[in-house]
C-alpha cells in the first residue's frame, strides 16, 4: 500500500532497485520504468527453503505459506508495471523468466575494490561475513570446522546466532558486527573466504577477492557468475559437510596467485558498473520512446 501511494508524475525515467516490493511502483504511461531486480521476492517464491530452519511453529509456517500464495499472485500481477527488467545475475534472470514470464538482461552489481588491499601476512583462520539467518547455511560451515578443528571467524549477527553458537566448538569464533576497516583487515589475512549458501549474487566473495583471497563457494546461485575454479576460488557441489571439507583441502593444496584474484575482482568495480549501467539505461529509454 505504501509503494502504491508513491507519486512519480513529472518524471521521464524511474529506476527501481528491488528484491521484493519496489518493482510494483506505478508510473504514468509516458514514464519509462526500469527495474534492477536482485531477485523476485525470495521469501515467497522459495518459501520452503527460506523457512525450513526457522524456529517458528509448524502452524505458523503453514498459515504463512497460504498468505505467500496470495503474495506470489500479487507479485506476478505487479511485474507488468515494469517496462524493462535488468537482473543482477544469471540465476535471477532465470527466475524472472520463470515467475514473471519476462525477459531480462544481466548487469552484475558493483563492488568498491579501492576499499581493499592485499596482505603479505596470511593468518591461520577462515572467514565468513554474513547475516546469521538460517537459509545462508552458516550451520554447514560450523559443522565442517567442528570436524577439521581449523579456526573459523564469523562476522555478523542475526536471529540464527544463538543456535549456531550452541553447536559450535571452541575453534569457531563469533565476532558480531564489526567496523568496515576491521572486516577488510580480516579479509586480507584470511586463508580463504567461506560462502556456504545460495545467494542471488553475493558481494562478499568478490570483496574477499579484492583483498586477494580465494573463495570456497557452494556451486549455485550468483556464485556461478563470479567464481572461476582455481582462478579466484573453488566450488563444492553439495551442501554437505564432506563436500565442504574436500573444498577446504583443495584450497590449502593450491598455490594461489594474489594478483590474478584481485584482477578478477576489478572486473566488477564500481566504475565499470556505472559506465555499463548508464549506457544501458540510455539505450533502453531510446527503445522505449520508439515503442520497441
Report on this model:
With 292 residues, this protein is α/β, with parallel strands linked by helices. It has two domains: 13-110 and 271-290, no CATH class; 113-262, Rossmann fold, CATH 3.40.50.2000. It has helices at residues 42-45, 47-51, 58-78, 90-100, 138-148, 161-167, 180-189, 204-210, 223-226, 241-252, 258-266, 270-290; strands at residues 13-18, 32-37, 84-87, 104-106, 125-129, 151-155, 172-176, 193-195, 215-218, 233-236. Strands 1-2-3-4 form a four-stranded parallel beta sheet, with helices on both faces. The chain is globular and about 60 Å long. The two termini are 31 Å apart. 34% of the residues are buried.
Write the layout of secondary structure elements.
Elements lengths: L12 E6 L13 E6 L4 H4 L1 H5 L6 H21 L5 E4 L2 H11 L3 E3 L18 E5 L8 H11 L2 E5 L5 H7 L4 E5 L3 H10 L3 E3 L8 H7 L4 E4 L4 H4 L6 E4 L4 H12 L5 H9 L3 H21 L2
Parallel strand pairs: 1-2, 2-3, 3-4, 5-6, 6-7, 8-9, 9-10
Helix pairs in contact: 5-10, 8-11
